[in-house]
Design brief:
The complex is a heterodimer of chains A (267) and B (253). With 267 residues, chain A is α/β, with parallel strands linked by helices. In chain A, 42% of the residues lie in helices and 21% in strands. Chain A is built from ten helices and nine strands. Classes of the chains: A alpha/beta (267), B mainly alpha (253). Chains A and B meet through α3, β6 and α7 of A and α10 of B.
Chain lengths: 267, 253
């Protein structure tokens, strides 16, 4: 028996209904709400691990937002925002980059959400026998950050302060054993993890995230504290969601995660 | 028509970044970039290391290429494949592999990382396939009868090689050497991981660009421009050099 045009139509409608219910069940509860808004977050590479932990937490509390993370050195991210990259939120390891963008009208305002301090790291077998900052000249191969990046600048400040305590030639002795000046802190750490360097100077959070290095703390009165700032990009496509993300970063829940990853958060 | 659009599209994609780079710096900015403290030590180191690595590649790669070209056995094909491996393996992977082999906690327990030697080793590893491949192809075109004739006329094997095979293969050898040198000049990933980044010791031009980018974009652009100019000169030499060589020998243009 041939089907008439009316039958064809009914068949098509039935098929459409079946497909719709299939799609509906596949996408689950998200279907009831508006589709998630993508929030592009530019973050300093030292925040890689902690943001990986914070992202699902924020998304669980804000189901209408889908966070996309982009990591690089703070300076490179600033460059990209200056070149109108589609970022909504900027997290910098160096407040000067946020300030420069605020001055240029590209970021709304900068707020400190965490701090980080420097530590010395050594391989687990500690071949140079470094137990304190004063032992650093014993290292035959020391790796630090280059002066072009924040960790390198903070390292220089730390060594200058150490001069006053350990003798005027301390910095010179330490510098003499520097075999590489890396352009990001993860590369600095990798040299110790691979056993190629006797010691390196990194942020505490980077040391905490690795189980292949041993941490030697720096006397607090000599240490340099790096401030992390966050700001919503002025040209953000989703500034309301961006402000919510900034609020979340400064919440007690985020502070717990940040502290767990080695950051210092002001109470 | 659509194929022409595709072809022109790719051409634009390739050329536009270079045009943009060339027009990015004013002469004043270029001059300021050249005065950046990272620039000259990096240029000197790049020049020094690439000349040494090119010498190593030619001196060690020529006998290898000759052997690969002359052998027809299965082992020669296997060796040819091994030589080509560094072309297809990402440089970052090579850097890690170099550390595992020649690092302090590597297979041989050497302490090569963080030295200028490490820079040269990385360059030799990434660049030699280009020379060996090109030289082997060139040597295959050498007529065996010519070599036999040279021998019957009293030439030693070495004399026959240098007076007959090398001149015939010269365009291929020059082309391979230029490509290999350009590859060394641009080497970044393996050097960064294996040799580290210290001005004057291991910071070559590409590493200086990467480092300068963290603080001074103009310097990074200026160094990039110089590196691109060197590459253009090498490419021109690559196209014109072999032809000049043939002409000077009275061969076909």
């Amino acid at each position: 028996m041939a089907r008439g045009p009316r039958d064809e139509l009914a068949y098509a409608w039935a098929l459409r209904g079946a497909l719709a219910s299939l799609v509906g069940s596949a996408s689950g509860c998200q279907r009831q709400e508006a589709p998630a808004v993508p929030l592009t977050v530019f973050a300093a590479s030292s925040l890689t691990d902690v943001l990986g932990a914070l992202e699902p937490e924020f998304e669980a509390a804000n189901p209408d937002v889908d966070v996309a993370l982009s990591f690089a050195g703070s300076q490179v991210l600033r460059l990209q925002i200056e070149a109108s990259a589609p970022a909504d939120v900027f997290l910098s390891a160096d407040p000067t980059h946020v300030q420069a963008l605020v001055d240029a009208g590209r970021v709304e305002a900068g707020q400190v959400f965490a701090r980080n301090e420097l530590v010395v790291i050594v391989p687990p077998d500690n071949p140079a026998g470094i137990e304190s900052l004063a032992d650093l000249p014993r290292a035959q191969r020391l790796v630090v950050g280059t002066a072009q990046v924040p960790v390198g600048r903070y390292t220089a400040t730390l060594l200058r302060r150490a001069n006053e305590r350990y003798g005027a030639d301390f910095e010179a002795k330490v510098r003499a054993s520097v075999v590489s000046e890396e352009s990001n802190v993860r590369l600095v750490r990798a040299k110790v993890e691979l056993g190629e360097a006797d010691a390196a100077i990194v942020y505490r959070s980077d040391a905490r995230a690795s189980d292949r290095v041993r941490v030697v703390s720096v006397p607090p009165e000599l240490n340099v504290v790096a401030s992390y700032e966050v700001g919503v990009v002025s040209a953000a496509a989703h500034s309301e969601q961006g402000r919510r993300f900034v609020g979340f970063l400064r919440s007690a829940a985020a502070a717990t995660a940040l502290r767990k990853h080695g950051f210092v958060v002001d109470p | 028509m659509p194929t022409r659009v595709l072809a022109i599209g790719l051409l634009v994609l390739l050329v536009l970044p270079l045009v943009a780079l060339a027009s990015s710096s004013s002469p004043g900015e270029l001059a300021a970039g050249l005065e950046h403290p990272l620039f000259w030590p990096a240029l000197r180191l790049s020049a020094k290391t690439t000349v040494v690595s090119l010498l190593v590649v030619v001196v060690m790669g020529t006998p290898l290429a000759w052997w690969i070209a002359a052998s027809t056995g299965r082992s020669a094909r296997a060796v040819e494949l091994l030589v080509d491996l560094p072309i297809v393996i990402p440089p970052a992977v090579l850097g890690v592999a170099l550390l595992q082999a020649y690092g302090r906690s590597g297979l041989l327990g050497l302490s090569i990382p963080f030295t200028t030697t490490a820079v040269i080793v990385a360059q030799v590893v990434v660049s030699s396939p280009f020379y060996v491949q090109s030289a082997a192809t060139a040597f295959r075109k050498v007529d065996p009868d010519l070599m036999t004739v040279a021998r019957t006329l009293g030439a030693s094997p070495a004399q026959a090689f240098f007076r007959v095979a090398v001149p015939v293969a010269m365009p291929g050898l020059l082309g391979g050497a230029a490509l290999s040198w350009a590859r060394s000049m641009g080497e970044f990933g393996a050097t960064l991981l294996f040799a580290g980044n210290l001005p004057g010791t291991t910071q070559t031009m590409p590493l200086a660009i990467y480092t300068a980018l963290e603080s001074d974009v103009r310097a990074a652009l200026a160094i990039s421009l110089v590196l691109a100019a060197i590459a253009v000169v090498v490419l021109l030499g690559l196209r014109i050099g072999p032809r000049l060589w043939l002409r000077s020998r009275g061969g076909p243009p």
